[in-house]
Amino acid sequence: MASGGLQLLGFVLAFLGWIGIIISTAMPQWKMASYAGDNIVTAQALYEGLWMSCAMQSTGQIQCKVYDSLLKLESSLQATRALMVAAILLGLVAVFVAVTGMKCMKCMEDDQVKKMRMAVFGGVIFIIAGLAALVATSWYGNRVARAFYDPFTPVNTRFEFGSALFIGWAAASLAILGGAFLCCSCPQRETSYPPTRGYPKNAPSSGKDYV
């Protein structure tokens, strides 16, 4: 029962992490800059994400623009996109594999060992997906920090960490932690002992003595 509870907890955490990775990928707030110009009416908050850039006016109106061309983007941004999309696809595969190996499901009930191995395999895929998302968000955050502390970067064009980065870090951690819990449900090998040999039984006496 304890193993089943740990398995269920791991799947829930990994699934929530996968949902968080999807949300983080879709959000435009990967980096943000907030500043006020000479006129407070023209104050803007600028956001940039993996797919679009947005500007929010002081009145609350938000205008977003999708990036025009994929080839015009920086190679680092394209690599971040690829890692996040790969993490989402790996998470989708991990969901189906882990669900098949869950003890509460009726699939593969005739072979419990293979069933538990499927859950472990799903946990491994969750860990890989979480690592891909963690690398993507950390790499992007490192670029934002380096540009912020660069003395040649104008003050009014410096960006800070956006909320999507924090969601991505938390989601990647949940996916890795949940995948680790799923891997803990690996079936233990039973120690096999050689069969004990019984002593030969004496033949029953017939009551007759032969000379």
Description:
Its main location: other. InterPro entries: Claudin, Claudin1, Claudin_CS, PMP22/EMP/MP20/Claudin. It is found in: Cell junction, Tight junction; Cell membrane. It is a multi-pass membrane protein. By secondary structure, the chain is an alpha+beta fold. The chain has a domain at 4-27 and 75-184: Butyryl-CoA Dehydrogenase, subunit A, domain 3 (Up-down Bundle). It is built from 4 helices and 5 strands. It has a 5-stranded antiparallel beta sheet. Helix 1 (2-26) runs antiparallel to helix 4, helix 2 (75-101) runs antiparallel to helix 3 and helix 3 (112-149) packs antiparallel against helix 4 (163-183). It is elongated, with a radius of gyration of 29 Å. The chain starts with a helix and ends in a 28-residue tail after the last helix. The relative contact order is 0.21.
